[in-house]
Amino acid sequence: MRILIVDDDFTSRKILQKMLAQYGSVDVATDGEEGVAAFHSALKEGEAYDLITMDIIMPNMDGQKCLQEIRQIEKERGVDPKDAVKVIMVSGLSNNEALHDAFFLGAATSYITKPISKEVLLNEMSSLGLVLS
């Protein structure tokens, strides 16, 4: 499984990386701009990501905008929505506006609030059909 973690917080990136490393290859990006670049590069190389975890509030480009750009890239490349990358938005925000924007504007697959437990993350990944081996 190929995984991309997009989060500006060093500690959050390291925690997620440690949780996910045993399930596949993990790349990291420190903001939305890097996230879009990594996603685009992976597609060009023919090694698309299976999962992206993404923070909402980040400098340069926030998670909502990053997710919208990723979905646009998929649309332009003719990716069927059922084959789109699974994106779990990860944030300390739990307000309705953030949830609405993540799901309806960016087509997020899921949403988890921080602090993240490994059990919750793995359960969410499993419910999305991602193989945890």
The poorly predicted ranges are: none
Integer tally of domains: 1
Cα radius of gyration in angstroms: 13 Å
Tell me which oligomeric state these chains represent: single chain
CATH architecture: 3-Layer(aba) Sandwich
Span between termini: 9 Å
Classification by helices and strands: alpha/beta
Major beta-sheet overview: 5 strands, parallel
CATH-wise, what's the superfamily? Response regulator
What is the molecular shape?
A: globular
Q: What proportion strand?
A: 15-25%
User: What is the fold-level CATH name, i.e. the topology?
Assistant: Rossmann fold
Order of helices and strands: EHEHEHEHEH
Biggest sheet strand line-up: 2-1-3-4-5
CATH class: Alpha Beta
